[in-house]
Amino acid sequence: MGKSVRPSVSEIATLAGVSKSTVSLVLNNRPHVSESMRKRVLDALEALQTQPSGAPRIKGPFRILLLHPAHMGSIQVFRELLQGIHRGIEEVGGRLTLAVHQPPLHPTHTTNVLLLEPTLRPHGVLLMGALRDDPILELLRKENLPTVLVARETAFDGFSAVGMDNYRGAKEAVDYLIRLGHRRIAFLGGSEQYEYTRNRLAGYRDALAQAGITPEGWVFLGKGDEAAQALLSASPSLPGTAIFFVNDEHASQALPTLQKEGIRIPEDLSVIAFDDTELMAQWTPPISSVAVPRMEIGELAVKSLVEQITRPSIESIRIILHTQLRIRETSVRALQ
Question: Which pLDDT score is estimated for 222?
Fold first, then answer.
């Protein structure tokens, strides 16, 4: 077995995201270094020393590529995820590049240059919005690039994921409506091609089932305004007593359609949405919604990616964060 080589000061500084002088102070056990900074340097040293023999060491800052969709349903959702990612990048001493990913991935797409050109190739990839059959996944596997799916619950084979508990968040919201006496609760918006819709729908159905309520006929998928119109067509007199929206975006599309028909919120319908964006808090009246720790998701996605980059023995990481139900004026007790 070959003799292990101690990582250089530059390598430790890069991984720890600190100056080389700080590393020297820590390695020489000098004073005037905070305990948190000392721990960061020693953790970086340990990570480099425990890399398998022959594993490549990072030269220079971590190069991280964020691939994101051309269009996001909510600018606030993207902004807060990105803020968390930037915070994580600063903490690990990385360099972030953003690129739009919009399938199919053509050979002439600029993303191929960022992934395949040796001088531009990232150490790892953060991926937003990819479906299970997206061709980008196979390319990332082929290139053996550490990849973290951002704001996703399920980690596809070979990938990590950092996201929120969509099932639990939806179930808690519907459980709350049931405790208020609601039994005719509709689910509005979304498409089952997306994992978050499927998981939120599962939470909705399980909450009703556990309360002995049959939800058949009360699920209306599609764009928010179209789903609302479908609900009105199915129940023109009074469409139930409560609605759980798949997210704030669909709620903002559906609510004007419902209110145009003279339906009062919350006098006629109690409503809860999902995402807790400023749009819902500023609505008239303010809308109850399920809050998601988006900045924390972004930050942990970066840290999880760096763990995979520096510790090749890690196959994948999956982190699921709790959501929080924010009750406002639109969730009231059902009229008996």
Answer: 95
pLDDT at site 33? 85
Reduced to 3 states, what is the DSSP secondary structure of residue 96?
strand
CA distance 155 to 148: 8
Q: How far is CA 165 from CA 88, 114, 170, 294, in A?
A: 21, 32, 9, 12
Q: What is the pLDDT at residue 22?
A: 86
Let me know: does 32 contact 65? Beta carbons within 8 Å.
no
> In the structure encoding, which two tokens stand for residue 145, read together?
């690039």
pLDDT block averages, 10 residues each, the chain of length 336: 61 71 87 84 78 53 89 88 95 89 76 81 91 86 90 87 97 98 95 94 97 88 95 78 96 95 93 96 96 97 93 89 96 84
Phi/psi at 103 (5° precision): -60, 155
- Number of domains forming the structure of the chain: 1
The H or E element containing residue 150 is strand 147-150
The candidate with the shortest Cα–Cα distance to 291, out of 248, 227, 258, 332, is: 248
Does residue 116 lie within any of the structural domains? no
Does residue 61 sit in helix, strand or coil?
A: coil
H helix or E strand, kind and range, residue 164: strand 160-164
Q: Give the integer Cα–Cα distance in Å for 207 and 211.
A: 6
Q: In which residue are the tokens 């764009």 written?
A: 223
The residue whose two tokens read 């909450």 is 207
The boundaries of the domain holding residue 220 are: 166-292
Look at residue 37 in the predicted model and tell me its pLDDT: 83
Alpha carbon distance 187, 185 (integer Å): 7
Q: Which segments of the chain does DSSP mark as H helices, in order?
A: 9-16, 20-27, 35-49, 75-92, 110-116, 135-142, 166-179, 195-210, 224-234, 248-260, 278-281, 294-310
How far apart are the C-alpha atoms of 172 and 290, rounded to whole Å?
Answer: 9
Whichever domain contains 279, its CATH number is: 3.40.50.2300
> Distances from the Cα of 163 to the Cαs of 6, 124, 160, 227, 246, in angstroms?
36, 18, 10, 26, 16
